Amino acid sequence: MVDPVAELRAALAPFVAAFQPGVSQALYKALYRLHVAHERGHDQSEAVARFASMDPERVKVPASKEGRRLRAALRGIHAP
Prior knowledge:
- The chain is mostly helical.
- The chain has one domain (4-78).
- Helix content is 65%, strand content 0%.
- It has helices spanning 4-17, 25-40, 45-52, 65-78.
- The longest helix is centred in the middle third of the chain and has 16 residues, at 25-40.
């Protein structure tokens, strides 16, 4: 079974390396906070909790391979 947080961290890489057009500002900030928490070895639970309030079907992501992977990772965070 894939760890949903690990998958989200892998999917966010292209979006935090450089700003991607088509990503909402709220999503970008949440992705960046998760990335920084992971890189600094801090607790990631608060950063992950931000994604729980986002609807993975309504959040603005690009219609690209990376965008589809990110949306799938967001769905994984919401899966029971």
